[in-house]
Amino acid sequence: MIDKFPHYIEFRHVYKTFDYPVLVDACFHVDPGQTVAVIGRSGVGKSVSLGHIMGFLKPDKGQVIVAHNDITEYPETRLREIRRKVTMVFQNGALFDSLTVADNILFSLELREDYDQQNKEDVVDGLLRMVDLQEFKDAFPTDLSVGHKRAVAIARALAAQPECVLYDEPTTMVDPIMSAHLTELMLRLKSQLGLTSVVVTHDLNLMRRVADNVVVLFEGKVIYFGAVSEIDNCEHPHIQEFLAMDRVELG
Ligand SMILES: Nc1ncnc2c1ncn2[C@@H]1O[C@H](COP(=O)(O)OP(=O)(O)O)[C@@H](O)[C@H]1O
Ligand SMILES: [Mg+2]
User: Fold this and answer.
1) In a domain, 61, yes or no
2) 217: left (phi over 0), alpha (psi -120 to 50) or beta
3) Which pTM was predicted?
4) Residue among 16, 19, 22, 23 to mutate when testing ligand 1 (max atoms within 8 A of CB)
5) pLDDT, tens digit, for every residue of 122-134?
6) How many angstroms is it from 168 CA to the middle of ligand 2?
7) In this structure, which residues have their CB less than 5 angstroms from ion ligand 2?
8) pLDDT band at 237, cuts 50/70/90?
9) Which ligand 1 atom is at minimum distance from the Cα of 50?
10) 139 close to 166: Cβ distance less than 8 angstroms
């Protein structure tokens, strides 16, 4: 499939209408090992785009390529195979409050028949170290800050050894120190594990630090798809406004 679909993820002229046209002729792609940021105002279709990548949503028109497969017409059984390779970190972490941090991660290893109990515990320790949460091993999710919960959710997603991780606003509602921490974590996963990722974000600092390419959505359309390093040269007024907002916030 890699010859036919050279990009790891690709939107080919994707259309999706709900109450209004949310995606109109959306085209962009993500290559293996790359991080692509998706930015744009609230309600512009960022989460809807991730939903298409996960196969939770189907386009009205166009094709969605994921893990070098055209998943547009895939039935649920084949989507499940794709979701082993591509996993999503949900904003609320979707953690079990009655399980400790370690057990939450262990839970996602339960189905791994290739590991015995000791292996599983070693993997959990490794993952906790990777996301810098060893000290919270025996804590319960309710004891953790939003940012720490997101780090646990990331560790849990990694337990499945995915090729690609989708992050939906990973630094929203998190204090600046924790934002920086999560940003560095995402960067580390990219360089150490070669993870491919798509990150929906309003956080331009995160975008500049982690993304290779950026997709800007505006009124249903992709108004920019290109290198993060070139985005400042884009003269589209909406993009300029978006970037200026950041400069104001930074003082
Ligand atoms: N499953 C759905 N059914 C109907 N409308 C939806 C569904 N998912 C998203 N929408 C609508 O699509 C639009 C884009 O939503 P979304 O992608 O969540 O925005 P955001 O860019 O803030 O993530 C919103 O108007 C939302 O109400
Ligand atoms: Mg959203």
Assistant:
1) yes
2) beta
3) 0.92
4) 22
5) 999 999 998 889 9
6) 7
7) 46-47
8) very high
9) 17
10) no
| Closest atom, ligand 1, to C-alpha of 41 | 21
Asked whether residue 118 is assigned to any structural domain, the reply reads no
Closest Cα to atom 10 of ligand 1 = 18
Confidence check: pLDDT of 250 > 60? no
Closest C-alpha residue for ligand 1 atom 6:
18
Contact 207, 171 (CB under 8 A): no
* Helix 146-159 with 176-193: angle, nearest 10 deg: 10
Q: Domain limits at 201?
A: 9-28+35-43+51-98+165-249
**pLDDT value of position 141:** 94
Number of domains making up the chain: 1
